[in-house]
């Protein structure tokens, strides 16, 4: 154990501790707690029963009070560790509670009622994961629909994003034509026009096209991303033009050059864009909230926010659904984090 | 080129998966060859650019331009032809105040409340965000063990959806939540944080920093790592103290990145909506009502919707964003020039 | 098959005129080499023949058919690029097959052609590797193989050996010559390298600043360069140029005085040389003799490079630089003087415009 501590505390270069080292480790460990703590707490809470969720102070792990079936009673009764008036300790089941007095029975001898002050008893608890928090939304709510809608929007939008933007990037990086700079500037200028600025007219256009309350109305406005064109173009500029000349000599059509030469060679940049697009589309909220007003079309994000905004919030379901919503992003994070961080550091996009 | 790594020689599974795609692409090829013959290579360039430009024109450019038209019409009708022309009335309404220092004296008091809230939010959030992410970047730039792990720790919330972020914190800040649990340990009574105007406001600032600081930390870290190590070694040889090295070397060399980050944070902060909408819904009252939510509710959500007013407000916000973006562009350009002069 | 004719072909990039009226006829099966200084338009000319650039003016014909408007793919030519331009994401086999698949050729024939080319170029062992896993020389062969399988009307090669090291360049050059003999296809070859031009070419086209300076067989260019530029360009080390003034002209013989006062007899060969005309006399370094007794043209020795088999002497004749390549080994000290003799040397005479003064080709 002390070996481990020594290893962890050892400093590179073997120098002594400086006050900045202490600040560093306080910051890092505090960061670990603040950054991961909330998500961990969420996941832990999502396995608690509604009763456990309502408790204060809350328990760290999901506990429920153990129950026993006692002869002569229809329902299972809560089990308590009680101190009897004569000082003996016993495990009893509570029949009912009147004021501060609890009427209890010994599960072995169900005939005899024992009265115990409620201060003299503590519930017998056991760990239990409330899996129905997860299973019920899948069966009783439209959750599966929301999940499907989100997956559909994410996958379709990402595919279209990749195709449409790579084609444009190809044209803008490998062809000389009038207005190329203009097109490039136009695309870059849209970086200045976020959704929040154009949502009113965009909504009317989407409605006019009959895409209101339609998943395509969520998908289409997002697919021509300037950042997508930009990173793909930057990457394609590094592909030597001689390869395209060679392909032309090889009787390849321009379309073939695009999909048999350029696309495969742009794979790393396409992968980065695909990852970003998946995260963006999965997380989109404001626009789907505007376009989708029919329940069966909600995406996960919209569905979750609407459920959580209801008066009678069913936290046990919300928490579980939030965890499910987090899963794809967490997977992306675990497996592709390196890809994303280098992508951001390189291009400054989000 | 990266693509010719030796690993990728055998690709049996990939081939079969790609087979239908190949066939489809092959089928398109014949008509496209014909198009190429007719339109020439320049025509093909137009063909490749077309889908993007079309989508982009319909869903970005067109709305951008008709937004101005919307802002000059009134009524509740959705489609532009059904709407009546009112000229600058919507703008006049937004600016109709008897006392310009008091939001409540304005006709559109919620607009000015939202503007005021957003202003405070931006000032606080940007300042704190820069401080927090700069400190984190400086710490991550040290000679750390498992640096990529620590970087990942701070980056983790960036990928979470705003809705999830909002819900996580709503759950933590509620009466039976983790925060009260922690404070309970120190003898405090449970408190409903999000029902208090000031605490709710603070929560929106804190939560949005929590969610996005990893992103800016990453950019600043990249900037720090671009500073040549030998500068510090030279400073150490000269007997420069670390704090002085930070002020005289790190800060000046990081300044361009820092400026870009400041403007990026600003642009995002002005548009804050998603996580706040889920966390507080703008409340309690209007204490966390920010400008995007005002536009959204004026344009869509409330019974008395007024798309013209929402459009006018969104144009005002657009102007602010354009100014900020141009500021960013000119900043990054001038810092490039400076870099070139060195 | 493989007859290429250019008539008054010009090319401009925007306002920049890169090629000015190129006239050139390449016979079927001929090996033609384009040489010229960097930026003179060799690649542009080649790419125009390939169809990768459109001529601004003039006419380009292949086998009698004007191809100005015909795209690269349909001209039946194959090109080998300086960077090889192999598709990095395809195996060698796929690289070779790509062009054939695009012509909808039956699979069996593709396989057979690849096998044949691979055997010819000895690249069978790495058909399933990717270009990134090959050495420079191997990539070069693959690039040539990609052209060969197409069975083109003509091969266009743009500095194909320039990325190889000296030794490999030598052996590949020999193989290219053998390949040309075997395929007997038209080949147009761009290079900077004198030796490649001299050894490979049936005819050399010398270009300068977008114009053709001279077309001829390697020895024609070496023996009777049409102007000072070609004379200086062909041959290594460069030809020496000595300025002189014609002093007397009598019955086909002229005598000129060099700057240092030395007089030499000029091979006028019937060209008109006026009394008092300023001429440039070109003489190759290998043709200048060093007089052991110090007589002849007096030259001051600047630098001596002893290469063993020969000695390169940098000297100064009355302010003009002269390079002498003398066979064998000589004991000469820099700073001393020596005598040079031109009596046995073939002299090249150019007028003050740099044009050759005799017409004996
Ligand atoms: N796409 C282009 N746009 C503008 N100018 C060009 C273009 N391509 C070539 N040029 C110009 O045309 C001239 C000839 O270029 P070219 O590549 O043909 O030279 P080269 O003889 O092949 O030179 P090198 O031996 O260095 O390869 C150069 O001055 C070059 O700058
Ligand atoms: Mg060239």
In a nutshell, what does this entry contain?
The complex is a heterotrimer of chains A (about 350), B (about 350) and C (about 350). With about 350 residues, chain B is mainly alpha-helical.
**What name does CATH use for the topology of the largest domain in chain A?**
MetI-like fold
Mean pLDDT of chain C: 88
Compute the CA-based radius of gyration of chain A: 30 Å
The CATH superfamily of the largest domain in chain A is known as MetI-like
Q: Structurally, how many domains make up the residues of chain C?
A: 2
Write down the CATH topology of the largest domain in chain C. Rossmann fold
Outline of chain C = elongated
Q: Biggest interface between protein chains, with counts per chain?
A: A-B, 103 and 104 residues
Under CATH, the homologous superfamily of the largest domain in chain C reads P-loop containing nucleotide triphosphate hydrolases
Can you walk me through this structure?
- The complex is a heterotrimer of chains A (350), B (342) and C (361).
- Chain A has three domains: 2-44, no CATH class; 63-127; 134-347, Orthogonal Bundle (MetI-like fold), CATH 1.10.3720.
- Chain A contains 15 helices and eight strands.
- Chain A has helices spanning 2-9, 19-45, 50-54, 132-140, 143-174, 180-189, 195-208, 215-223, 226-236, 241-249, 254-265, 267-283, 286-291, 300-308, 315-347; strands at residues 63-65, 67-68, 77-83, 89-98, 101-106, 109-117, 121-123, 125-127.
- In chain A, strands 2, 3, 4, 5, 6 and 7 form a six-stranded antiparallel beta sheet that branches. Chain A has a two-stranded antiparallel ribbon with strand order 1-8.
- In chain A, β4 and β5 form a beta hairpin.
- Chain A is elongated.
- Chain B has two domains: 2-62, no CATH class; 89-341, MetI-like fold, CATH 1.10.3720.
- In chain B, α3 packs antiparallel against α9.
- The two termini of chain B are 31 Å apart.
- In chain C, a hairpin with a 2-residue loop joins β11 and β12 (253-258).
- Chains in contact: A-B, A-C, B-C.
- The interface between A and C is medium-sized, with 18 and 25 residues.
- Adenosine-5'-triphosphate is lined by residues 13, 16, 18, 36, 38-44, 192 of chain C.
